[in-house]
Specification:
Layout: H1 21-30, H2 32-38, H3 42-45, H4 48-60, H5 64-120, H6 125-132, H7 136-145, H8 152-161
Length: 162
Amino acid sequence: MRLYFVEMAKFNKDWPELRTALDRWIAFLNRAGQLGQEGLPEALRVEPAIVKAAAELERIGLSAEEREIYEAEVKAIMVDQIQLKDAEKRGIQIGVQQGVQQGVQQGVQQTLLRQMNRRMGLVPPAIATKLSSLTAGDLDELSDAIFDLNTYAEVETWLTKH
């Protein structure tokens, strides 16, 4: 820890002369009253903490009415950010659910194709195409019914009924 003793009135470096963080902070503290009207000089903008301090100083200097408006705007921004994060989470959850459902559906389709191929021989492309358009419920029904179907004609009949 270091202690610095500075006589603020004697610190008279101009903005381009500020080289260290200590110089920038002393200049900021020494001229804080003027900065609101002039804006923050580039020499001070290199210090993120000074930028935050200047914003806080500006907020403190607002009238009660201006401060109320400012705080309402900040709250509105925070609410928007929270709503955006919630919407993003919901979107991700819905996307994951849809992905899982599609994955299960594709898995059932692949299993049915393998079962048909093993039981009845090579699956005709028309039947494979129809399988890909079935709903999850229809795929479940077909996976139960497949044990009672012996030919692709019977599978075609079943698909036509459903």
